[in-house]
Amino acid sequence: MTDSILLSIESGLARVTFHRPASLNAMDFEMGARWRDIAHDVTSDDSVGAVILDAVGPAFCAGGDVIAMGSSGAAGMDVTGAAHVIHDGIRTFVESDKPIVAAVQGAVAGGGLGLMLTADYIVSSDAAKFVSRYANIGLTPDLGVSTLLPAAIGQRRALQLLLQDTTIDAATALDWGLVTEVVAPDAVADRTAEVARFWLENSTAAFGQAKRLVRTGVGRSFADNLDDEARSIGARFDTTDAKTRIMAFAMRAAERAAAKKKENS
């Protein structure tokens, strides 16, 4: 079994770890297939309630491994095929009902931006840097960058990253909405685990459905989104988890009302 991406599942938490540090975790053909397969395995596993996406080494992900692809004798059609494979994994994670938090410990470049944005919540080191660099080597965006990047930071800023040789720091990434939180380098892993633990200790299935509605709603009509919302909330309403939480919420509200009434009497 390949170790280009590591997968562990324990107590409802799946951890997906990019593991090609010598190549800055850039995806070659084999790693792309591994990514797709893991995405299908994790999202179809009913025992998984949350996902952590992280990486080892100095970079989170440098996108596609164009050096490996360029030296392999691959043609454009091979690169197109590899992109489709990686895109399958991205789409599978994004459209799933598994909430995903990314731990970004280092630089993110090119298609790594799209892989990072597969996550719904992104915790970044304050030392991380973010850059496009596609056009610098004569290539165009892939790995979801042309869709996920403008969805996160807006079209104008996405174009600024894609059309200029611009590197932004973590503070700017936070200001633009590219990442969710910025913490000290030694706090990234703990904060990421804390986010995942919050989901798992609460109604992670409801968080997952909320994520799915937001992520899939972009490409559909308003009417279709409303129909999906109606079906989803009805399905959740019938679960034991929701019934228990609603009852507890009602009891707390009644207790607060009684306390306020007593205070005013």
From TrEMBL:
Gene3D superfamilies: 2-enoyl-CoA Hydratase, Chain A, domain 1 (3.90.226.10). It comes from the Bacteria. Pfam families: ECH_1. Belongs to the enoyl-CoA hydratase/isomerase family. PANTHER family: ENOYL-COA HYDRATASE, POLYKETIDE BIOSYNTHESIS ENOYL-COA HYDRATASE PKSH-RELATED. This is Enoyl-CoA hydratase-related protein. It comes from Microbacterium aoyamense.
